[in-house]
């Protein structure tokens, strides 16, 4: 079968060794060959195919190149070349940690499973040493996408009822690829030998000369079908091949398996890590079980993918946004979607403006440098939030406002003639030059990071500001001399080092004749450096005049103050006016503006207001 367009591939599968790549490709239900086109900067080789309902792109690290950094580079490049990847899988072999609690054998499978604050993968050689010599791990890695964790739980429950199908998948693979039968089959329980942790390997590539008295005798298993273990995987830049160090780290961090790539991948390519056990991470390492272990890991990955439904369909009113689902205004809101790094669901629909959720971010008309717009600033004209603003207070992060970060942000907007194109037009207005009239084709938004800044208690901070004489004078001046509304910035969304890539541009004749501008069917790429604001959350400021019967106690409140109003035809010697300023309860969105709304305290669901 010929390769599909790169945008049709939604699963990224990364291997470190050729034997792992061989097992992965042999598990494909369909083989699509190699990509017909590839970015000139992308030096990796990809194999394309399909498992279940998912189109899969498989890549292997260059021969002889291993470690966390190398895996990270491959993950970043794969996501750059295949923009619609929903989630990733890191599949291969690892060194098991056998214990009384976990009777891990060669050929078994270990799957990374988050516990508490742990992502299921820890980098055991990265941290800081303390006085007793213990290594304290710094920071934490991203957890796998919820889509994978949900599927993993479902598969685990299914295996408890019916057993796993790993041996069956391997049998089918060997029947389909008879050349693999010698090395990719089970190597026999007699060749699965575990030595005492403190017993060092003798000499030679095998354990022929090792003392048999140092072997750990374990009860034979009833079946040769591999067992599956879920827990923490230890990742580092050097091979673990010492039994004592293995057991020490395993007991401290509850590690079931050691490997060399996953820690570098998790923050750049959030994924599930699956390892077939090929040795016991001690000095008795050999490669006899590598092929079979690679096959068991690949077989588990296939079972997992077959439990996950495809995230898209062929409905003409459906857009695909890098794993996000977005319908036109004839559809309804879709629920929370899957993500690589907490990606939300975006639904395009006509929404009752009186029933909006509490956080509305209005798409700006351009990208603003973050330093040009401040949280807690007062804005006289929301069209120009960087002009004539009053910023009187410096907020403290975490205390006064929260920041959520989505790393390696990549949204792909695919539309057709029957789709509602409001969202695409709004994004085009932000990114494209005035010479561009319209974008007729597909759109991609890329960024190193997408960030959401949100004030925690905007009304309290506004009341504090209202107690400052400079703020009162500013509010009074606009109240007296202008009929326009005033706004308070309570949040904004940003992109770091963003790119906008569009096709099928419709430009005016002068632009079309310019060499510096692409033609109507060419790609257009706009890049910006630094952190740029693309959407802002406003609250309207309500100013009320109180003249008669105002209790004096009100003036003790910071958001009430006296003012003279001779500009309104009053005698300042005889008439005073008391002004009250407060924020309206709901975030404000102009009637014809494009806005992104968030539902829930963790911003886990988004809607686009059109």
Task: Give an overview of the whole structure.
By secondary structure, the chain is of the alpha+beta class. It folds into 2 domains: 6-305, Rossmann fold; 318-609, no CATH class. The chain is 20% helix and 30% strand. β8 (127-129) and β9 form a beta hairpin. It starts with 10 loop residues before the first strand and ends with a strand.
How would a crystallographer describe the biggest sheet?
13 strands, mixed
- Residue share in helices? 10-25%
Oligomer: single chain
CATH-defined superfamily of the largest domain: Nucleoside phosphorylase domain
Distance between the termini: 41 Å
Mean pLDDT: 75
Class of secondary structure makeup: alpha+beta
- Identify low-pLDDT runs: 127-133, 312-358, 415-420, 515-522, 566-574, 591-595, 597-610
Q: Give Rg in angstroms.
A: 30 Å
CATH architecture of the largest domain: 3-Layer(aba) Sandwich
Number of helices: 12
CATH topology description of the largest domain = Rossmann fold
**Can you identify the CATH class of the largest domain?**
Alpha Beta
Give the beta-strand count. 29
Question: What characteristic shape results from the CA principal axes?
Answer: elongated
Provide the number of structural domains. Answer: 2
Question: What is the strand content?
Answer: 25-35%
